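pls read this stuff:
=====
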Amino acid sequence: MRLERCTIRGRLALFTGVVVGLLCIVFSTVLLFTINRTATDNLTKEVTAVGELTAYYVDRGKLVDPLPPIPQNLIRPVQVVDPQGRVVAATRDLQNQPAMAHFTPKSPHRVASAVVCHSVFTSGRCHIVVAQQVFHNGDWTIYSAAPTLPFAVYPGVMTLLIAGTVIFTVAVAYGARHTVTHSLKPVDAIRAQLDHIQSTDLGRRVPVPMAKDEIYRLARSVNQTLDRLEDMLEQQRRFCSDASHELRSPITAIRVQMEYALLAPQDVDPTDLCNAVLPSVERLQSIASDLLTLTRLDAGVPYERRLVDLAELVATELNGHRMSREIVQHLATGVTVSGDRTRLGQLVSNLVQNAQRHASSTITITVRHADDDPRFPEKAAELEVLDDGAGVAADQRETVFQRFTRLDTARSRDAGGVGLGLPIARQIAESHGGTLTIHESAQGARFVVRLPLSP
């Protein structure tokens, strides 16, 4: 047996049924109360009419005991009390009984009514008692009464309301469940399709319903998420493939050197072997360091923010590198940003190393203020690294920021780069709230870093 209460359709049907049932109960209660109130008002008027008929006889001095005949449809308990408070006349059912009530109308009113219980009536029920005053040689009081009505004046109406409440509640609950079931069919189809989508088969997409409702937007969002997931998975596969390729080259070189040394140890000088193996080890160390940096950046490892002067940072990094190209510096003072000095230094170092690999003869480095970027509410700090090399084609300016991506010219002029420097530099810039992009230039590649300026 399925637990319908655990499903959306079951919960919604239950909630709808409960709400509709409560509304029907409230409506039935109000209706019965209104009917009871109307019937009570009519009964009170009828009792008042009986008293008025008796008052007519008292006013003309034609009082007899028992009281004179009353029309069959108006027979009610009636008593006549004289000015001294004695019951001088009554209907046959109240002969020799004390007064049924002791209240009198308040001036200027001549009629008053009240509900009286535990009086002279033999039924034990409460009665509606109407008191009317008549002046005939003093104030006489005529009391007329009738039993109060039960809450359900008409039992048939109450039965009809109960049956209608049950039928209407069940019908609405069933209709709600049927409607929700029909509406959720596309969701079931989406779920079934997602169950069949595996990590090796991300090309499938969930069905999109024709009606442009919430489920339509859900299916669109799911398909867009699957698109991004497929792109990320493809990027991850490409990343693993490229990383394996990059690691294979130095490992193979080290293996060849070591196997040669083992095959002919007498012909191998340890110093020459170390000198031959050391570049491959350094390349492995560089790749491992870059991968570790990317992992930390992807994980969002927090860093300590300090004020960093960009001009001073660039000068320090340039002094720490052996430059093979002419360096032209335009470093404005007072350009200060907030961030991690080590990471920002790595950003500058990666850009300088990239420019050095591709420049023909000259690298121009500029640090200045930039106030024309709408992405930064205040002024931004700008670092520009420009080389005079072949440059980057417009359709490849985003490609170079993908991991392990090297353009053909870079591969042919390989100087140790593995395609991680620029992705690391961009991620460092973005982690500091900035950007790294390639701009147009007359010659070469122009890399521009913009970071939020600190006061």
The radius of gyration is 50 Å. Residues 187 and 195 are 12 Å apart (CA to CA). Confidence is low (pLDDT under 50) at residues 1-5, 409-416.
